[in-house]
Amino acid sequence: MLDKREKHLEKQIQQTLEEAKAKAKAKDKRGALFHLKRKKLLEKQIDQIYGKKINIETQVMALESAASNKDVLNVMRQGKEALQSTIQENDIDKVDEVIADINDAVALADELGDAISRPIGGQIDDDELNAELEQMESQLYESEMLEAPKVPVVRQDANKIVASLPAAPSRELAQPESEKDIEENQLKELEAIMQ
């Protein structure tokens, strides 16, 4: 009913606005003002209809919520009664007995699982496997060392070594005093060349 009334008022507002424009064109100021005032009154009635519709919607939502709350409360009561009934049917001693039976069954299942998972046939010694693994790793290391590029070791006079090597970038070699110094200088020179 409110929707129909609102549509009717909107049509009247449109008609009143057109009449006000027509009066304004005809230079009838008083007639134009009358129609504009009438338009304002009609708009006020539409605002009242909006307010009524909002109030009705609010009440509808409140009623729906109350009905929903009633249903939920009924279900909660039924749940409470069912829970109390179930608790009364189950004695705590019976519960303890059932739990003990479950624990016994679980322990038995664990024993059965352990028995089934034991290895069948001869057992392999872990120490023997570790020794074989160490031997394999040692052989791999030796083969890698044999495949590594050879570094020439020449035991000659330090001046000859320096002369046979390519020139290092702006470094001067100190004169070695012993065989140990010679080897160290050779290594330094090789490192400088490889860089």
Name its key features.
195 residues, 80% helix, 0% strand, Helix Hairpins, mainly alpha
Description of the molecule:
This protein is mainly α and 195 residues long. Among the domains are: 2-92, Helix Hairpins (Orthogonal Bundle); 152-195. 80% of the residues lie in helices and 0% in strands. The chain is built from six helices and no strands. The protein has helices at residues 2-25, 29-89, 92-117, 126-147, 158-164, 179-194. Helix 1 (2-25) runs antiparallel to helix 2. It starts with a helix and ends with a helix. The model is unreliable at 170-174 (pLDDT under 50).
Could you name the ranges where pLDDT drops below 50 across 5 or more consecutive residues? 170-174
Distance between the termini: 97 Å
Shape category: elongated
Q: If you consult CATH, what is the topology of the domain at 2-92? A: Helix Hairpins
Structure at a glance:
The protein is mostly helical and 195 residues long.
Q: What is the topological layout?
A:
Layout: H1 2-25, H2 29-89, H3 92-117, H4 126-147, H5 158-164, H6 179-194
